[in-house]
Amino acid sequence: MTIQKISFDDVIMLNRVTLRGVGILKFPGFKKSSSKIIQGFLIALMMANALYLMISMSYVLIFSNHEMTTLLSTMAPLMSITSGSSRYLLAVYNKVLIERILEVNKQVWNCATKQQDYETLKNYGLRARALTAMLFGSASLTVVFFLATPILAITNEPMDFYSNSTGNFALRRALPLPSPFETFSSPYYELAYVAQGIATCYLGVAVSTVDALSTVLVIHGCAQFKLLNNRLLGIVRQDLQSASNYYGHDQRARFFKTSFRFHRSILEYCYTLEAVVSISNLISVLTCMCAISFCAVNIVRGGADLLKFLGLFMVFIMQMLFVCWPADYLSSESTNIAFAFYNCSWYNYEKSIGSSIQIAIARSQNPVALTAGKFVIMSLETFTSILSSAMSFFAVLKSI
């Protein structure tokens, strides 16, 4: 009997909509050729926005006469955009694997016919949806800070980098991000502001989509381990409550064979997930560690851009937390399976089942680990190390 009240597609609706909106997932109801054209257009649009922002800031950075103020204020946004667009391209490259992983989750969700199994998957699915909402909310708030900062930063000062046509004092109107062109006069300022606003919004959606996808896939991996753990603990409780000997019973043999297959499928899921997120995690670790330091320096210095860098600082911290914490949780859930198998009274079953349980125990004693390019295991300990390194780099920058 089917007891599901909401489907897997409903749980990840926000993720699916945004993944299609940035060209990673196919559009349903379209022909294959039409869907590819739409995806290609969306990918090209996103990369055009990213290149526009990166080229503009790189130009300002190169021709700023190596001014420390310009360097510090430009590096954090530039690293954020470069890192985000790189992770987006990796997601586009791995879109076939992403679709396969989502399909596996959907199959697990559809096979949960018992109320307890459904509630387990539902609880983890709602957690993943809440984390997705938090990521998009923080990204939206940061974009608002970016767009609002120039309005609050309008001052009457002589232009210190570009000279206007008259060479006189002019109203200096800032843009959300550095621009290589003189856009202080209307309508060039308004056009540049709108262009940067649109590019920043679309890039923010794309990067948040990729970050949220990684978190959601890891959380659903945790749900699968928890589902298997609950099933094994249910067998343990039945054994404790019953005095009968289940040795050689066909029902238990079928249960354990199904559990072994499910365990192997979860491990394959995690290996595929590692292939998808490994390089992306490495990019996040390297850029966030440096960008957090640049943001902290700008926050300490204060000024008109304080709000903008405060938002960026918050996003970088949250990004690393949502990369490290779910990965740490996944490792913990994977090792719990060893205890669950061990408590199943494996010594009371026939030799083939007992041997298979021992193999499953040995396999589960090596925790599943998501890494950053195979160099660093993502965990809460790694998160604290990243923050510690970022603060050390911040101390160096602050002393310059």
Automatic annotation (TrEMBL):
GO terms for molecular function: odorant binding; olfactory receptor activity. It is found in: Cell membrane; Membrane. GO terms for cellular component: plasma membrane. It comes from the Eukaryota. Pfam families: 7tm_6. The chain crosses the membrane at residues 41-62, 68-90, 131-154, 275-297, 309-328, 375-397. Belongs to the insect chemoreceptor superfamily. Heteromeric odorant receptor channel (TC 1.A.69) family. This is Odorant receptor. It comes from Cephus cinctus. The gene is LOC107275028.
